[in-house]
Design goal:
Strand order of the largest sheet: 2-1-6-5-4-3
Number of helices: 3
CATH architecture: Roll
Structural class: alpha+beta
Largest sheet: 6 strands, mixed
Number of domains: 1
Shape: globular
């Protein structure tokens, strides 16, 4: 990976990182409308499963995924289900605390497109039975510049946990 050197590239990466930090904050605060606005209408949100101990499934169309949405419409539907309080995965709704770190450009950003990688951990606190869980991993993002700024065009979540002891949802990662 080539390190970004000029001020314009560094500013683009800073703007992209700020978007990722904002995403974590909005999820933690359950500000669903603002969170979904971070995503492009044709975005892809994917959390593949591990096919083996060392290899991720590489195609959401032919292999199992924890989560896969082809567009923002799928994410919007998920939010409707969360808000309905009828979703078994989100009842009761867990409290979360996202920690985002190690945001790096995967390739030099351009004025209209950027790929970033960010490490994260999310502490998920459940009300029922006073359970606490920690999900951790990293995400790879493709950001696209639109009139209002950067939006998330693709998000690939790499969950590193060996054990998933409870229901997993979009706000957990």
């Amino acid at each position: 990976m080539k390190a970004t050197t000029n001020a314009q590239e560094q500013n683009l990466v800073f703007q992209g990182a700020e978007l990722l930090y904002r995403e974590g904050m909005l999820l933690d605060e359950r500000r669903w409308d603002e969170w979904i606005a971070l995503y492009a209408p044709d975005c892809e949100f994917w959390m593949p499963m591990w096919g083996t101990e060392e290899t991720l499934n590489n195609d959401p169309n032919t292999a199992l995924s924890h989560i896969f949405y082809r567009s923002r419409a799928g994410l919007e539907d998920r939010i409707v289900r969360i808000r309905s309080r009828r979703s078994p995965a989100s009842t009761p709704l867990a409290r979360t605390s996202h920690t985002i770190s190690n945001v790096l450009a995967l390739e030099p950003p351009t004025a209209s497109n950027m790929r970033l990688r960010a490490a994260w951990s999310c502490n998920v606190l459940f009300i029922r039975a006073k359970e606490q869980h920690v999900f951790f991993g990293y995400s790879e993002y493709e950001l696209r510049l639109v009139d209002d700024g950067w939006v998330i065009a693709k998000k690939k979540v790499i969950l590193q946990n060996d054990l998933i002891p409870t229901m997993l949802d979009i706000y957990c990662v």
